[in-house]
Structures are given as structure tokens and as C-alpha cells.
Amino acid sequence: MEEKLLKALYSIITPAKIEKFERIAAERTKHVTVAVENLYQEHNASAVMRSCDCFGIQDLHIIESDNVFNVNKDIALGAGQWVNDYHYTDKLYPTTNCIQSLKDRGYKIAATTPHTDAYTINTVPIDEPIAFLFGTEQTGLSEKALDLADYYVKIPMVGFTESFNISVSAALTINTIRTRLEAQSDLNWKLSHEEQTKLKIEWCKKIIKNSDNVVKDFMRRIAENE
């Protein structure tokens, strides 16, 4: 059914869009995901989302304990259309809820911190699904996030400054992990065919006017022909 729906949707979008959707979906991953905790500067929030899209990270998890995650369209450059964002807004336990949700889905939790006994982004294990947590601009991750993490991870540095800006840290981390994934031919880290099909359907709906009605009409026609 989903294959037939995608074929129908492809019949009303341009060949250029089809080629782009096919190419990009084939490079997407959920083996690695990103979670951000309580970011308050919208340019950083937007830049993290943009980095996720650029490096093929499909899911972004957003913990909003005190600050609302606002996206600056001039910085995100439309990334919000193509990345799945999940918000955790419970005022009491948003961090716990996010991390537990990720663990329930099989992710190891990697808290980014300049902690002295941390893995580096070059050495942290990536054979299992992994979620990288990034904290607020001034204070980093909360104690709760650090307590619940499976790993501590840091970016190797040789200068006087202790840390990078949050958006730079996220981009460096994602890029390094992406490169490591591509080097491991025995690791099945890309989306399955079924996941890619579902994702491409969602992307089609983003660019088709009155997409809900269009999908309903196509689904009715498909059902009638079966």
C-alpha cells in the first residue's frame, strides 16, 4: 500500500524532487540521533537542526524544561521540513522522559562534556544506536542528564578554551560520527527500505498543496483497485 501511495505521489511532483528525495533518503539514519537540553538562543537551536539535516540525522529530540525551542528560519534554511523533531515539555521531568524514551528504543546515551575520563568522538562505541546529548550554552547538561548517560563524550581540544559553542560542538560531533559510520561496512546504520518509503511519503506531503486530501483520494483509488 505504501509503495503504491509513494508511486502515486511521485506522479504529481517534479522529476528533480523525486531524484532528490531518493538520493537523500538513502543516506538518512536513525542509528544516530541528537538531543538538546534547554537551549535558549534560537540561532544555536536552528544551527543544530540544520547540521542534523546536512549530515543525514533524521531525528532531533528537544528537551524544553525552561526555554522554548525556537527556530530562526534564516539559519535553519528549511531544515525543519526534513528533520523529525520530538519535543519534551513536561515541566517536572522532561530530561528523564526524553532519555527514557530513547533508551526504550534501544539507544545508548552519550552526554557531551569536557569530563576528564570521557570517550572522545573518535572512540565512543557506535556499534549500537546512540543518542548524543548537548546542553545549554552556559552551563552544559544538567546533572540529571549526566547521571542517566551511558557514556561521557568530549571533542579533543588543544587550546586554552574549555569548550566549543553548542552548535559547533554538535556539527563536529555529527560529522565525525557520520564519517565513522561510513567507514564501517558491516554496520547496518541506514534506514530500511520501509522506513525510507514512509519518509519519502512524508516529504511529498510537505510540498504538495492540500496533501491530506490528495493522500485520501489516492488511498481510496488504491483500495478500489485491490
Describe the structure.
The chain is α/β, with parallel strands linked by helices and 226 residues long. It folds into 2 domains: 1-28 and 193-226, no CATH class; 31-190, 3-Layer(aba) Sandwich (Alpha/beta knot), CATH 3.40.1280. Helices cover 46% and strands 14% of the residues. It has 10 helices and 7 strands. It has helices at 2-10, 15-25, 42-54, 73-76, 79-82, 94-104, 143-148, 166-183, 193-207, 211-224; strands spanning 32-37, 59-63, 84-88, 108-112, 119-120, 130-134, 151-154. Strands 3-2-1-6-4-7-5 form a 7-stranded parallel sheet, sandwiched between helices. Strand 1, helix 3 and strand 2 (59-63) form a beta-alpha-beta unit. Helix 1 runs parallel beside helix 9 and helix 1 crosses helix 10 (211-224). The radius of gyration is 19 Å and the shape is elongated. The termini are close together. The mean pLDDT is 89. Residues 32-173 form the tRNA/rRNA methyltransferase SpoU type domain. Its EC number is 2.1.1.34.
Secondary-structure topology with pairs:
Layout lengths: L1 H9 L4 H11 L6 E6 L4 H13 L4 E5 L9 H4 L2 H4 L1 E5 L5 H11 L3 E5 L6 E2 L9 E5 L8 H6 L2 E4 L11 H18 L9 H15 L3 H14 L2
Parallel strand pairs: 1-2, 1-6, 2-3, 4-6, 4-7, 5-7
